[in-house]
Amino acid sequence: MSKKLNVKIKAIGLLDLLAFKKLVPNRKKKFEEAPATEIRKTPPMNELAAKLHPKHQKFTITDVVELTSSMKQFELSSDTAAYFRAGQYVSVKLDINGHKVTRPYSIMSSPKAALSGKYMLGVKKADDGFVTEYIFDNWKEGTVIETSGPEGNFYYEDIRDAKTIIGIAGGCGITPFFSMAQAIRDGIEDFNLCLLYGCKTLNDIALRKELDVIAQTDSRVKVVYVLSDEKKEGYEHGFITADVIKKYAGDEPYSIFMCGPQVMYDFISKEIAKLGLEKKYVRRELYGQINNVEKYEGFPKDKVGKKYKLTIHMGQNTTITEALSTESILVAVERAKIKAPSLCRTGECGCCRSRLIAGDVFIVEDTDGRRMADKKFGYVHICSSFPLSDLEIEIPVE
Amino acid sequence: MGEYIFNREYDVIVIGAGNGGLTAGAICAKNGLRTLILEQHNLPGGVATSFVRGRFEFEPSLHEISDFGPVDNAGAVRNLLENTLELGVEWMRVPEAYRLIIPNEKGGRLDVCMPFGVDAYIDKIESEDPGCRPYVEKFIALCKEVVDAFAYMAASKGNVDKKYMQANFGNFLRTASYSLQSIFDAIKVPYKSQKIISAYWCYLGLDVNKLNFPTYAAMFYKYLSKGAYIPRYRSHGFTVALDKKIRDFGGTIEYKTKVVNILVENNQVIGVKTEYGEYIKTSNIIANTNAHNVYGKLVNKADVPEMAVKSCNSRDIGPSVLVAYLGLNKSAFELGIHEYSYFIYSKPTTKEIYKGFCSFEDPVGQATVCLNNAIPDCSPPGTSILYLTTLYHGDMWKDVTEQDYVTTKNKFAKAMIKEFEKVVGVSVTPYIEEIEVASPVTLARYTDAYNGSIYGYEITNWDSVIPRLLMIKDEEFIKGLKFSGGFAFRCHGYASSLLSGETAALLTVKDIKAAKQQ
Fold it and tell me: What is the pLDDT of residue B73?
């Protein structure tokens, strides 16, 4: 201020100074006069948060159905199952011969079923899948399993998305869309879902009957099967191209949602580029961990097949183990039979955020979901970081 | 002590790595105390963090830090973070104080953009409300005296010389137990000027009739005289720097480690128990969580002094928030969003808006920030980040079920976005590329905040920062158990929480020194 004001405030009440002196005794009196009733331990918001976002859920498998020759549907039952948004996943926590591993699987059932304690998961047997093989061999009626709470952001959001969603599904990628179709049918979601479901042959289509029934009874759901290896009347033949999308999308604005294997994304991305859509209208579910990092641009060729020393600090413990350049740090930790935090396994959710004390890693740009300051301060998401040297890392306890 | 087996011992254990926990831990470690910070989440900062959606990294909670100032006019927070702790973080200056819009004000729409700087602020308010100058100058001079008085009180560390206070801070003493509205009335600040000056009230979460004057005055004057700052890389940018500093000073931080029990013997802290069943020995705890959690859950019932329970029951927990975070695929300029900070009050009085915070109706007040107007490259070229915040008391959401949770929060978010578009005269909805809506439940989920509260206890006249500071020493109901953060003695907000950690740490250092001398 340019000039110093000499303010003298007139008394507001007669006893202002006394009021000041009384501030402390007055506050003490307020305390003394309050009831000594018990403090509520869990107020309503913490209670609702615990219901919607449990850290762990336990289920018993109550039904197993073979959907195709390589895909099974498991019914999970419990007294309570956290409510979720159609399209979300749970991370399944497994103990395979002492190796504590996780896998994210989309919940394929309607959110409505969660209210009666049920989830359905669809698992496709991978060619060299150590985990899916274990699941196929061991998950039977009566098996007790543990999962995370519902996670992920692959769901319809009316403020953001077009009213019509073109769902592009490949193989096991049908599961989140099956949940969405049921959510529409059950009155939980309200949008148009036009599903383009790519399979090799007619026999590879999972849930055909169920999808057709929903499409017949609810005009908002439409299903188009696209067979790549087989020509059949009434089915699209070939791959899901820009032309196929245009043919079924209609004239109204639409958003594209994709869920399928990495190879599908590589192909479809080029096709979608031809449609000239804004980025906000194209969303894709994460495709799980990278199993062929050496094929990504920028991965140093001379590091393929290299083995490094990995020093892990967790809580009060330090463990030294080996890590392969072509396997994520998370996989190396799981191989060493150490339980580490993980959910999405694609670098996005940040659950496995760890402090890299020494060493270099390779991260595929697409899977680098780190915060800017974390990059600066040397933090990594171990599920999407690959060792390029000996490493020393601090991982939070799980 | 026989019943617990302790494998390790620390001079001090800080529970919670929120703003007040991090500064407490840093100051303790810097002073050579064996320091352990235990945090239930996997990140530092509590609400002072960030999150990524698509190509956007969002700021969850911070609008602007007060009491910061530029290098050559450093406030207490800059002094703590950059001079005492030498974080070396990049800070960005917020361009203007705020744009305030009250569409249905008496006599028509009020729409002003106020600058920082005491002189500039007074000139602007005079042009908006001619003739107000002498009254506003008087009001601001009074605010300055309040700031000086607080500075004296803080420096005296609980040993206030009453005669000195009377001689130098008479006005402060006279106004200490009054509300903001009483002071407006007493010095006859014109109506329109009152509305403009009180724009920041929602940062403290209580309407002007109940909000303690000196608490508001201190914040208001610090914003005017020192401007406001934000970290370049969201709040995570400085909380992760604090984490590193604590380690550099020899302190330890353990994430994903929740304290489930504070152990007490003969009314003295003796240690903690973690969720993993580990017992850790200490005689000093700084709880960076609220007293409701500590006395209602963490300390065994038999060990909680009755007055501690009563103190909790005497106070009201402040509001929680609903925030809509938008990643937009147009630049702020293209959208016509030219200010950093918007206060939009859709009801004319703060009392009515506060009533809205205590209801389950569509939002009637919002504080909205366009981050790009302070950090132009905070999002990719041709995009922008906008976040709209309103307040709700957690209890107002008590009947929300799991099934209608998402529709509820989205309904309120949409209403807030629509109001912003209407009042500011811009369109944002078609450009939403990413959206996330945080609610009281989100706060409870990530920070374990009591009923999702983002604020501390309400800052009424009887429980304002003044009696809280004067009673620091009386409030250690259990020996060795101190508090930091928004629920503690400096009241809430980033600046207060950060500074409260420093004070709690210095008091702990002093106690430990005294104990060693005995």
Answer: 94
Q: Name the minimum distance, in Å, from the CA of B255 to any CA of chain A.
A: 6
Nearest C-alpha neighbor of B158 from the set B504, B517, B518: B504
Q: What is the mean pLDDT of residues B194-207?
A: 95
Chain B contacts of A149, Cβ < 8 Å?
A: none
Q: How far is A45 from chain B (nearest CA, A)?
A: 5
- Those residues with Cβ within 8 angstroms of residue B514's Cβ, 6 or more apart along the chain or in another chain: none
Could you confirm whether domain A164-284 is CATH 3.40.50.80? yes
Q: Do A43 and B50 touch (CB under 8 A)?
A: no
Task: Indicate whether B497 pLDDT > 80.
Answer: yes
Residue contact B444–A49, C-beta within 8 A: yes
Alpha-carbon gap: A4 to the closest alpha carbon of chain B (Å): 8
**Residue B35, beta-bridge partner list:** B12
- Residue A195, strand partner residues: A167, A223
Instruction: Give CATH superfamily name and number for A50-147.
Output: Translation factors (2.40.30.10)
> Of A183-192, B66-75, B86-95, B158-167, where does mean pLDDT reach its minimum?
B158-167
Partner-chain contact A373 B466, CB within 8 Å: no
Q: Do A44 and B467 touch (CB under 8 A)?
A: no
Tell me how many residue pairs between chain A and chain B have CB atoms under 8 A apart: 237
Find the mean pLDDT for residues A289-308: 93
Name the residue in chain A with its Cα closest to that of B225. A1
Confidence of residue A348 (pLDDT cuts 50, 70, 90): very high
Tell me if A45 and B451 make a contact (CB, 8 A cut-off): yes
Q: Please check whether the domain covering B6-48+236-316+457-517 is classified as CATH 3.50.50.60.
A: yes
Give the distance from residue B470's alpha carbon to the nearest chain A alpha carbon, in angstroms: 7
pLDDT digits (tens, 9 = 90+) for B420-430: 999 999 999 99
Per domain, the residue ranges of chain A are 50-147, 164-284, 293-394
**Which residue of B lies nearest to A370 if distances are taken between CA atoms?**
B52
Task: Give domain limits for chain B.
Answer: 6-48+236-316+457-517, 116-226, 319-450
CATH fold of the domain at A293-394: Ubiquitin-like (UB roll) (3.10.20)
Give which of B53, B58, B402 to mutate to test A binding, by max A Cβ within 10 Å. B402
Binning pLDDT at 50, 70 and 90, where does residue A2 land? Answer: very low
From chain B, pick out residues whose CB is under 8 angstroms from the CB of A2.
Answer: 119
Mean pLDDT of chain A: 94
Chain B closest-CA separation from residue A124 CA (Å): 28
Helix-helix angle A208-217:A174-185, to 10 degrees? 30
pLDDT averaged over every residue in chain B: 95
**Residue of A5, A6, A9, A398 to mutate, interface with B, max B Cβ within 10 Å:** A9
pLDDT tens per residue across span A198-243:
999 999 999 999 999 999 999 999 999 999 999 999 899 999 999 9
Burial of B6 (0-12, 13-18, 19+ CB in 10 A): middle
- Summarised one tens digit per residue, pLDDT across range B161-170 is 888 988 899 8
Which chain B residue is nearest to residue A43, measuring alpha carbons?
B451
Q: What is the DSSP string of B73-128?
A: G--HHHIIIIIIS-----EEE-SSSEEEEETT-TTS-EEEEEPSSHHHHHHHHHHH
Chain A neighbors of B448, CB-CB under 8 A:
46
Put simply, the answer to whether A49 touches B395 (Cβ < 8 Å) is no
Q: Which of B8, B256, B398 sits opposite A398 (nearest CB)?
A: B256
- Residue type, position B343, single letter: F
pLDDT value of position A9: 64
The string of DSSP letters for A8-60 reads: -PPPSSTTHHHHHHTHHHHHHHHHHHS--PPPPSS-HHHHHHHHHS-S-EEEE
| A185 close to A218: Cβ distance less than 8 angstroms | yes
Amino acid symbol at A190:
D
Question: What's the complex ipTM?
Answer: 0.95
pLDDT of residue A3: 38
